[in-house]
Amino acid sequence: MRIVDTHLHLVHMDRFTYPWLGGAGALKRAWPAEAFAAEAQKLGIEAALHMEVDVAEADMEAETRYALEVNPLVVGAIAACRPESSDFPAYLDRLAALKGVKGFRRILHTSPDELSQGQLFRANLRRLADKHLPFDLCVLSKQLPVGRELVESCPGVQFVLDHCGVPDVAAKALDPWRREIKALAALPNAAAKISGIVAYAGPNWTTAMLRPFVEHIIESFGWDRVVWGSDYPVLTLTADLGRWVAATKEIVAGASPDEQAKLFHRNAERIYRL
User: pTM for the complete prediction?
Assistant: First the structure.
């Protein structure tokens, strides 16, 4: 099965500043495209989207431009942004003009809830609709109601929920996460990314632990609104790329070839306009 990875992080410490890496333990090192590509191509990952890595604000545009040229496997980039800034419209125009920019993200799971509730933030985010560019929604499980309000306030914008909404897989905390996922999935402009959950599953996770979370995402959003992502290299904290690919394939093994193709590449190609 051909795979499009919609969530690849690359770290170039010699080029950019990553304030959050100071407390990131084993992740605090270079993660180049060549190492990922060597592993990914053996697993059927034929294309990847670089996901912004929360670099220092001054490096955001340079990170995106570099990611677009870094490796043939990287076919596009989801760029960092600051919709709360009055400079956002000009920034959006510049980056949207770059061939290969396929979406935007503003980290919200480490930000005050009030950030995405601001009028300027939402007005600027609505500008993505005219550019036909999606916004990746990165919120904690407890912030899902805040995320839903944002999605509801921008009906013309396509949103993609990152990391299944960051459930506490290790604690098997299905509720109230399940209820909030259902509520978000009721909005037609929301999709979900099956990614990241191994990082919240603890070092001794099993596929059986992941299954109810993945299956609930698919049941809630349907096969036409789910995409797959590696969340490399964050996944290396509890797994490796091959194990995450194998676990996902095992969970969806009972689905039809058409449904699996939607998850692994077809929806990504449509939503991110690849």
Answer: 0.97
Helix axes 33-40, 241-251, angle to 10 degrees: 40
Contacts of 271 (CB under 8 A, 6+ apart): 134, 158, 160, 191, 227
What is the distance between the alpha carbons of residues 260 and 173, in angstroms, rounded to a whole number?
A: 26
Cα separation, 193 vs 170, in Å, equals 19
DSSP assignment of 27-52 equals G-S-B-HHHHHHHHGGGTEEEEEEEP
SS3 158: coil
For residue 201, give the DSSP letter: S
The 10s digit of each residue's pLDDT in 45-78 is 999 999 999 999 999 999 999 999 999 999 999 9
For the beta sheet containing 74-80, the strands, ordered from the edge strand earlier in sequence to the opposite edge, are 3-8, 45-51, 74-80, 101-105, 135-137, 159-161, 190-194, 226-228
Size of the chain, expressed as the number of residues it contains: 274
